[in-house]
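Hi everyone, sorry if this is the wrong subforum. Our group has a chain we'd like a structural model of before ordering constructs, and none of us has done structure prediction before. Sequence below.
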Amino acid sequence: MRDVARDPAALERLRVQRSRLADRMRPPWWYLTGIAIMYALVFAFPFASRFLSVSIWPFFVAALVVAVPLQWGWTRATGIKMGFRNLSYPGPGRPARYAVVVVSLGAIVTEHFLIDRGLIVAAIAVAALAVAAEVALQQALLRGIRQELRSGGAA
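Answer:
Right subforum, don't worry. Here is the predicted structure as tokens:
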């Protein structure tokens, strides 16, 4: 096997391929819409638990019913299977992954606090802002992965 690390033409082909791969990682409109629906289900749980006395399981199942086809559609549309990256994964978008957790936990705790005090409109506003923040964070995650691919890192 020949050493391609010293072959400028092979390195240029690799750079072009990585750039094309990064270009394919742009989310279609339905992907971000699906992410918003999934997080809306997550942030609706505090309301349902308080006013309908519903457990978390229907919301968990509903979020999975949205997430699984969303992931399947992403793979079909882009040709790229993007696995789950936990918080310890050192790759691109790590700060965005931490922010996803902070926004989710902060929004759910704040919603419970506001609902317990009868501030329903404020809780709805927190949920809406949290959904928008999660969609923006998903875009930041994908942007980080695209940048890592273009720079030659191990995305």
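For your construct planning: The two ends are 25 Å apart (CA to CA). Residues 120-151 form the longest helix (32 residues).
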